[in-house]
């Protein structure tokens, strides 16, 4: 089952683009719920969420090194261990690379932290932002390394305001814009707590496009089941009439109905438009457990 899915995805893949080659975390593949495999040229990264047989791991690494074109390194990240260490299984030791997605470029760091700098399941969301950003002032909440911002500027946004508490992540976001030779005068980076900085957010508005992609939980700062409503209630202060919104939810314990009900209660002037579908490789045994990305439009009376 694992090999069949990987072979099919390798055969269908465009290796000029970063992408997932196997998605076990969706629980669609029995006995492989703990395995993901990503292509981050020239690296194949195997992510494990529990221990596996060493022989299987090295046989899999050997297969990937030989089957994936242009692969120069196969690495494993063990997310079940403290600090999620990364190890080179075969090939070169590569700790940094630059990947391409929809002709835009992003820095990737391997072995530095739990997350590599780009969430691959959001590829379609970034493409939608790029297609809808022209001439708009964009607010990017929980910006992380500013991949949505890169997409927005590439799509012709007049200004993008990135908000995130992690100033180090925003610094990487600035580097991502430089990598794409973007005009940084169009981009603002604010390392502040969103829930304590609404006046600063308002200063740059009103916005015609808003993206909100929060973490599900961060100790001491974010509990999205409790806190999403605080953001939605501020929409009338932040957005222009007819502004578009992309609201994301990545908690397996909360489905899209949660977001629809929160919006209906906190800002009923926002009309749900449609879902952004995840890339096909992100198969889910139970609908609604993976990433949810919903499009809305702000239509005040």
Mean pLDDT, to the nearest integer, reads: 95
Characterize the biggest β-sheet: 7 strands, mixed
Instruction: Report the strand count.
Output: 16
Order of helices and strands: HEEEHEEEEHEHEHEHEEEHHEHEE
Provide the β-strand percentage band: 25-35%
Helix content: 25-40%
Strand order of the largest sheet: 10-9-8-11-14-16-15
Protein structure class: alpha/beta
Shape: globular
N→C terminal distance: 53 Å
What's the helix count?
Answer: 9
| Multimeric status of the protein | single chain
Give the low-confidence spans: none
Secondary-structure blueprint:
Layout (H helix, E strand, L loop, with lengths): L1 H11 L6 E5 L11 E6 L2 E6 L5 H14 L5 E6 L7 E6 L4 E6 L2 E6 L13 H10 L4 E5 L5 H8 L4 E5 L3 H13 L7 E4 L7 H7 L2 E6 L4 E2 L3 E2 H9 L2 H4 E11 L6 H11 L3 E6 L16 E7 L3
Highlighted features:
alpha/beta; five-stranded mixed β-sheet; 301 residues; seven-stranded mixed β-sheet
Structural notes for this entry:
The chain is of the alpha/beta class. It is 29% helix and 30% strand. The protein is built from nine helices and 16 strands. The protein has helices at residues 2-12, 54-67, 123-132, 147-154, 167-179, 198-204, 224-232, 235-238, 256-266, and strands at residues 19-23, 35-40, 43-48, 73-78, 86-91, 96-101, 104-109, 137-141, 159-163, 187-190, 207-212, 217-218, 222-223, 239-249, 270-275, 292-298. A seven-stranded mixed beta sheet has the order 10-9-8-11-14-16-15, with helices on both faces. Strands 1-2-3-4-5 form a five-stranded mixed beta sheet, covered by helices on one side. A hairpin with a 2-residue loop joins strand 6 and strand 7 (104-109). Helix 3 (123-132) packs parallel to helix 4 and helix 7 packs parallel to helix 9 (256-266). The model has no long low-confidence stretch (mean pLDDT 95).
């Amino acid at each position: 089952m694992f090999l069949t899915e990987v072979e099919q995805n390798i055969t269908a893949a465009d290796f000029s683009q970063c992408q997932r080659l196997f998605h076990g975390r969706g629980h669609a593949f029995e006995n492989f719920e703990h395995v993901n495999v990503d292509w981050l040229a020239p690296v194949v990264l195997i992510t494990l969420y529990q221990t596996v047989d060493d022989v299987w791991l090295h046989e899999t690494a050997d297969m990937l090194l030989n089957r994936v074109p242009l692969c120069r390194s196969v690495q494993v990240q063990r997310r079940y261990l403290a600090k999620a260490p990364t190890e080179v299984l075969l090939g070169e030791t590569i700790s940094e690379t630059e990947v391409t997605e929809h002709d835009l470029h992003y820095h990737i760091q391997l072995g530095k932290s739990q997350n590599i700098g780009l969430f691959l399941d959001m590829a379609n969301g970034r493409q939608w932002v790029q297609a809808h950003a022209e001439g708009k002032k964009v607010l990017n909440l929980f910006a992380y390394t500013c991949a949505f911002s890169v997409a927005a500027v590439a799509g012709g946004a007049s200004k993008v305001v990135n908000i995130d508490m992690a100033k180090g992540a925003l610094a990487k976001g600035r580097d991502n814009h430089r990598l794409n030779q973007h005009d940084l005068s169009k981009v603002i980076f604010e390392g502040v707590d969103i829930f304590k900085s609404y006046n600063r957010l308002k200063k740059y508005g009103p916005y015609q496009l808003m993206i909100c992609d929060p973490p599900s939980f961060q100790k001491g700062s974010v509990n999205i089941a409790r806190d999403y409503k605080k953001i939605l209630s501020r929409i009338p202060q932040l957005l222009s009439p007819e502004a578009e919104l992309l609201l994301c939810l990545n908690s397996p314990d909360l489905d899209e109905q949660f977001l629809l009900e929160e919006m209906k209660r906190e800002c009923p002037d926002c009309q749900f438009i449609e879902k952004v579908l995840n890339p096909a490789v992100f198969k889910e045994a139970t609908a609604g457990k993976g990433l949810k990305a919903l499009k809305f439009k702000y239509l005040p009376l």
